[in-house]
Amino acid sequence: MERQLISHIAHYDHPIAAPVSEQNLERLLTRAKLAPGARILDLGCGEAPWVLRALELHPEAVADGVDISEHALTAAQKAADQRGLSDRLGLHHVPAADFTGTEPYDLVLCVGSTHAFDGLTATMQDIRRHLRPGGLALVGEGFWETPPTPEALTKLGANLDDYGDLSATVAQAEDAGYATVYGHTSDLAEWHEYEWSWIGTLTNWALDHPGPDGDAALAAARDHRDMWLNGYRDILGFVTLLLRRTD
């Protein structure tokens, strides 16, 4: 099975696709305090849970969502139709780094998708080109909660310098010309809800679809469980930062 389809299935019961609760997602979006008619961009939007909720919270806003997964964008369009938001949301099937908007945005989101730009620094630089002066970025990124062991790095397929600690991560985000105006650090309950949902949803799907695809999905679920439980659990953290562009 292709990786994008596995991810689509695994996130069915947790479409936020990050270790963030619905309550904290809404808190982060509300703190943006967008003006009427705001323009919003979500880079690596997936099934668009963040940008769809932003449109509900800001009924005069318009938005664009960008992702490379056809499965995710199909689900995003369906969700937008069901919630009556499709007339205010444009979806774009292109790599996030290649997207160019027609006008600057008031808020640019990139939550859990900094890999699309090869890391946080490049992400913040790319977001800046989309933002109006004084505009806001909402960025979710991993950080080392505790120093990773060599075994954890091997499980993750990561290097020590892929992330910093929380302080270094905030400084790295700001270095491209931003000031942090709010933030949320995911707690243990959010991590467990996210991980068990990912693993369990994919496992259930695999058991309901015996055959090569089911076998591949079950193997992916077990590999992910092992990577989490015996790898990055209590080592990898996640922070979502609301940052204001400085000029």
From TrEMBL:
Pfam families: Methyltransf_12
Gene3D superfamilies tied to this protein: Vaccinia Virus protein VP39
Domain Methyltransferase type: residue ranges: 41-136
Superkingdom field: Bacteria
CDD domains: AdoMet_MTases
SUPFAM superfamilies hit by this protein: S-adenosyl-L-methionine-dependent methyltransferases (SSF53335)
Higher taxonomy: Bacteria, Bacillati, Actinomycetota, Actinomycetes, Streptosporangiales
Protein name per its UniProtKB record: Methyltransferase type 12 domain-containing protein
InterPro entries in the record: CFA/CMAS, Methyltransf_12, SAM-dependent_MTases_sf
